[in-house]
Amino acid sequence: MMHQGMLPPGARIVDDPRNHRIRLVGCGEDAAATANAVVEMARSRGYGKIWGFVAPDEWNALRKLGFRREGMLDGFLPDRHGVGIARYLHPDRARSARLAEEDAIVEQALAAGPRPPTTLDPAFTVRLATPEDCDQISRLLTTVFESYPTPIETGADILRAMAQEVHFALAEHQGRLVSVASADVDREHRVAEMTDCATLPEYRGRGLMQALLSAIEGEMRALELRGLFTLARATSVGINIAFARLGYRFRGRFINNCHIAGGWEDMNIWSKPLLRAGTHADASEATRSASTPLNPI
Fold first, then answer.
1. Of 67, 94, 232, 256, which sits with the fewest C-beta atoms within 10 Å of its C-beta?
2. CATH 3.40.630.30 for domain 99-273
């Protein structure tokens, strides 16, 4: 069975059995050879999907090998966008029965934003997390999500994420953790994925997530990143509206990308440039996602 050391020079992947997929992180010196090797690896493991963001020139090689474009990412490179790619090895993994519903949610989110965050009720406090918060972060995430695409089951899982430069922010009410979000920093591409967004049901609709995301954005700007993005559950109205209101732009959709909240979920790509560099993507390159009729531009 192939392992990462057998990939072409410079190629990097994330083997993700939890979600029955491989994430292509870097194509290395030969994009076509890397793609063929990763397809072989995924098939040997019985996985249904390969996905990731690649440079436009790498996409030109991958498109000839059965990969399809599902979106784009602003600021992925200094002067170019990244292309969100996917290759499906199981036909059912490539199909979604919820596209019409998901498109309607995107339209609703686009109509809602952008706008300044609402003033947070002073009964709530927002702060950055410390290692001492790991256990309660884990408890909140496992309470909100029946299943999750990354390890969150213990405080040790959260601590390992922090060590890998995942920055968490918390919202508390009378000392109780009620909402959390994080930014997973990619130093190589100078972007961060906004993720781990969860609010206890009884505290939703109070602007907590917008407050958390705004606080994390300030931290990411201090790191001089080129951009932020998120992969938001396509069937969640609230989280898509939250990112649209903060000025994120809809950039496409990954179909059946991960297992979260008890089932396979399509994930909407929302992207926000932070620096002028990397925002000059040609609109003709950012064609509509192969999986959705909505134009992500």
1. 94
2. yes
| β-pairing verdict for 124-128 and 82-88 | unpaired
What would the two tokens of residue 195 be?
Answer: 């993720």
Contact between 22 and 41 under an 8 Å Cβ cutoff? The reply is yes
209 touches 117 (CB < 8 A):
no
CA-only gyration radius of the chain, Å: 19
The CATH-assigned architecture of domain 4-94 is 3-Layer(aba) Sandwich (3.40)
- Residue-wise pLDDT for 103-123, tens only, equals 999 999 999 989 887 889 999
In angstroms, rounded to a whole number, what is the distance separating the alpha carbons of residues 72 and 285? 9
Domain boundaries, the chain: 4-94, 99-273
Own/partner long-range contacts of 196-199 (Cβ < 8 Å, ≥24 apart):
196/137, 196/141, 196/152, 196/166, 196/168, 197/230, 197/232, 197/239, 197/242, 198/140, 198/141, 198/144, 198/145, 199/144, 199/171
